[in-house]
Structure formats: structure tokens, C-alpha cells
Amino acid sequence: MKLENVNVMMQQLKNIDTAFRYTRLFNAVLLVSYTCLCGYTIYSCLEKVEKAQQRIYLIAGERAVEAFASNRKDNVPVEARGHVRLFHQLFFELSPDENVIEGRMKKALYLADQSAKDAYDDLKEKNYYTSIISANVSQELNCDSVHLDLNQYPYHFRFYGTLRIIRTSAVVTRSLVTEGYLRDVDRSDNNTHGFLIQRWLTIENRDISVIKK
Length: 213
Description:
Blueprint: H1 3-53, E1 55-60, E2 63-68, H2 72-92, H3 98-109, H4 114-125, H5 128-134, E3 138-149, E4 155-166, E5 170-184, E6 195-212
Antiparallel strand pairs: 1-2, 3-4, 4-5, 5-6
Helix pairs in contact: 2-3
């Protein structure tokens, strides 16, 4: 075999080896690119699914209204104040009907601990609810404000409101101030906010006006 032919063959082998290396490099780059693309696609899909799960649609009449889910921490002030207002409305807004009173008290006592039950039992023992029924008295509560301290746990609150007692002969307006603490509990149908009022105490419940009919 001539030396020239040998050189040609060696050059061809080198070209084949170089081409093979380039092919392997190209395949490696292609594999990495496809892996990155698949990873990005999966990440984007999971992110979109998570965002979609945070969307809630509420039916209002014939319209679907979009709402958004949020973290518990983001809603603590709103839900805590809502829980306090709901409890006070259930406990103090009364009608001269035994079944209505018992129903509202049953709902209210799901939202608080024994301190609220003790207050209810004390009023019941003093025939407070019996007098409301016999005298056809109604009570309406207006919440002025709820002050909340989130710097401590359980969360301290103070409720400020005005209570209108509507009698046959007069309308009495009272200033109502209570305080207590809120601790986290599991949400349920009976306690949708997931809080429980404890160490509840009425600080003020005094007449501020009396209007004769």
C-alpha cells in the first residue's frame, strides 16, 4: 500500500472520529435542551394548575362571580373581626320568641368557650329571656368597631357597639363594650371562621338614651 493511500485513510479515520465526537456533542446538547424544555413545561403547567385551584366561582343569581383563595395569615384580621361581630349579633340580637332565642344562642355558643355559656346561664337564671318574651321586647345590635391585637396569641379583642332595646313604651339605647381572646380552632359548619372566643367579659352595658313612645 502506498504511503499516500495510508495518509488518505488516516485522514478519513480522523474525519470520522471528529464527526462522531461532534455527533455525540450535538446529541448531548439536544438531550439537555429537551430536558430543560420538558422541565420548564412541567413547571409552567403546575404553576397554572395551582393558580387555577386558587380561583373560586360563586353563583350570584344567574352570574358566576370569580373569587380568589388566599392564605390564612392574610385573612386573620378580617376573619377575626367577622367572628367577633357574628358572635355578638347572635348573642345580643333577640326577638320575643323562645325558639328564635334558643336557636341563636345555640349558634353563638359554638363560637365561644364556657365564659359565654356562663353568661347565658346567668341571664337565663335571672329570667332575662322570659321577660323579653312576655313583654314582647326586641333587641338590635349595631357594631361600632372591633379592636384587635395580633401581636399576642391568643388574640385579644375589644368589641364596641350600641344595643337598642325596643319595648312597647320606649326604646332604650345602651353602650356595649366587651372583651376577650381568640384562639384558632378547626373550621366547621358551626364555626366557619375557625376561631373560638375565650375569657369573654362584658365591660360596659349602660343606658345612653331612653326615648318614650
